[in-house]
């Protein structure tokens, strides 16, 4: 997209990458799940490509049009994989299951992606995607607060702001 990336942005991305590595290395497991890390790296590459392509598409149409269209096409393309994987996608759903799918589709995915791509219309990809480093931090904190999950010491250190930095008193 011919967007310039500054040295400060590169430095920030590297610091974020180090934080993510610290978070994943802080897992309490005795084994390091290499396959899981490889799959996550592939997912990050795919999502980054998706972000760039959507930003290009959003120059021709707004995020309010392209995001639902993208999610619909993605759902259609994912359905065969779910069927091959043995998912019970084809069985009839009861009312509670329909409401759960609607909740996930509209709120957890639809609105989140819509707001993300509306934000990307107003900023550069590198700056917007750097905020994605907050996802594991927020998910970890919400899991701790809402679900009562514990966090490893390494993870707490990885998400804690440095003394004298932003967020310190």
What's this entry about, in short?
The protein is mainly alpha-helical. Helices cover 71% and strands 0% of the residues. The radius of gyration is 19 Å and the shape is globular.
How does this model look, in words?
- The structure is a single chain.
- With 169 residues, this protein is mainly α.
- The protein has 7 helices and no strands.
- Helix 1 packs antiparallel against helix 7 (153-159) and helix 3 packs across helix 4.
- The radius of gyration is 19 Å and the shape is globular.
- Residues 163-169 have low confidence and may be disordered.
Question: Main traits of this protein?
Answer:
single chain, disordered C terminus, 169 residues, mainly alpha, 71% helix, globular
Strands, count: 0
Mass-distribution shape: globular
Helix/strand order: HHHHHHH
Summed up, the helix count is: 7
Radius of gyration: 19 Å
Range of strand content: under 5%
Would you identify the regions where 5 or more consecutive residues have pLDDT less than 50?
Answer: 163-169
Roughly what is the average pLDDT, rounded to an integer? 76
Report on the biggest sheet.
none
Structural class: mainly alpha
